[in-house]
Amino acid sequence: MSMITTDPQILIHVATRHLPDHVTEKPDQYAFAYQVTISNRSQQPVQLLSRYWLITDANGKTTEVSGDGVVGKQPVIDAGDEYQYTSGAILDTPVGSMQGYYEMERADGSPFRANIDVFRLAVPNLIN
């Protein structure tokens, strides 16, 4: 089974926000939400099977997260449609980043990886 590293017809957009009122496990942690929009510009449906995230804080501490689907689902995204979900991350620093990929499969059964470019998590107005 061969896998294409990325598919230019699957567009991934991420918007982030700091959650200052979110209660964290430790008082010196920072909570962030990220909303992902996956747009399928191909000619056939695709299914998101699994995810991988590399989360890095400002101290260089990394955390890897992987598993089936996203937010408990393995959505099928029809041709020309999009899927949106919101999830979150907790950091030990007020600034960090995330990047990763989705393992996906086309309706014809061919697998591929949709890369997610690095995006920033940051407390607003922290850096001028």
Automatic annotation (TrEMBL):
Gene3D superfamilies, per the entry: ApaG domain
Pfam families attached to this UniProt entry: DUF525
GO process annotations (BP): error-free translesion synthesis
ApaG domain mapped to chain residues: 4-128
Top-level taxon of the source organism: Bacteria
Alphabetized InterPro entries for the sequence: ApaG_domain, ApaG_sf, Uncharacterised_ApaG
PANTHER family according to UniProt: F-BOX ONLY PROTEIN 3, POLYMERASE DELTA-INTERACTING PROTEIN 2
HAMAP family: ApaG
Protein name as it appears in the record: Protein ApaG
Gene giving rise to this polypeptide: apaG
